[in-house]
Amino acid sequence: MAKPVPGNRIVLLETGDAYFPALEAAFAAAREEIHLETYIFSEDATGRRIAAALAQAARRGVAVRVLVDGFGARNLAAGLRAILEPAGVHVLVFRPERGLLLPLRRSRLRRMHRKLVVVDGRIGFCGGINIVDDRTDAPDGRPRLDFAVRVEGPVVAQMHDAARRLWHLVAWTRGGRRPGPRMQRCPLQPPQPGGVRAAFLLRDSFRRRREIEEAYLQAIRSASREIVIGNSYFLPGVRFRRALREAASRGVRVRLVLQGKREYFWVHYATRALYGSLVAAGIEIHEYIAAYFHAKVAVVDGCWATVGSSNIDPFSLLVAREANVAVEDETS
């Protein structure tokens, strides 16, 4: 499992209201390269706004690479490509969808669910926020609740390396085609910008298949006071449920904040089927109903926290490519 490294500065960003301006500011200041990975890149006002910021950077001579998922981003809409590609932005699609009539096979579930941005190898963003208007389907104007982090420091090198590896892998699977210049290794970092210990966690289909789940389990098993987990799609396996019940049995206050609005029928009711056994074990369950809930966050004992793209369900923990940042604060 990835080891936490000291010397990072971490800023929590809540909803697109904080996230998208932070992205735009980083893009405007970029000098060498921007790498963006996202599951969804919608052709809405937000998508066009971020595409325009990327295109503007590319026209300044910045190497801009965009990797989207073939299912989540529908291979990237033609309207967005018309903004990005003429400006010199290099676009790749992870597992392009060939049509919606193909049979549902496990291989089609191996999606790129990460939301990861690295600018000049010095600033990174990681979280659960897609490039999409987060007020979609919100008649009262309240944004979908989600989080990301802006990262500076040594852990950004790990984020950059993950982005570089996946970009080269996808280029190779496209028959060796590599749009734009080869993505280089992360440059040397400036003096340490902060005092936070952080780790970059991945879930992939190779060496790091269970890294995010194991990080959760380690934090839960070591908890002595409190566990708070906020997760939009919560359908944990046997080990995860057992760890939560064992924590509650030793006096740890365990609180789950889950999606209250029904978004996906089967996930909603499968999660609710677990409520009885969890509540019986002394675990509190709170449903967020003010708006759609898309967060993937947790805090344990006030000294360990994670923000990322990974839900606690079989799709995220066993199949999809995910990315989280975990933070340790020993002063709490």
Strand content: 25-35%
Count, helices:
9
Shape descriptor reads globular
What is CATH's topology name of the largest domain? Endonuclease, Chain A
**SSE succession:** EHEHEHEEEEHEHEHEHHEEEHE
As laid out across the biggest beta sheet, the strand order is: 4-3-2-5-6-7-1-8-14-13-12-9-10-11
Low-confidence regions: none
The CATH homologous superfamily of the largest domain is termed Endonuclease Chain A
What's the CATH architecture name of the largest domain? 2-Layer Sandwich
Number of strands: 14
Describe the overall structure:
- Helix 3 links the parallel strand 3 and strand 4 (90-94).
- The model has no long low-confidence stretch (mean pLDDT 90).
- A 14-stranded mixed sheet has the order 4-3-2-5-6-7-1-8-14-13-12-9-10-11, with helices on both faces.
- Helices cover 30% and strands 26% of the residues.
- With 332 residues, it is an alpha+beta fold.
- It has nine helices and 14 strands.
- The chain has two domains: 5-173, Endonuclease Chain A (Endonuclease, Chain A), CATH 3.30.870.10; 197-328, Endonuclease, Chain A.
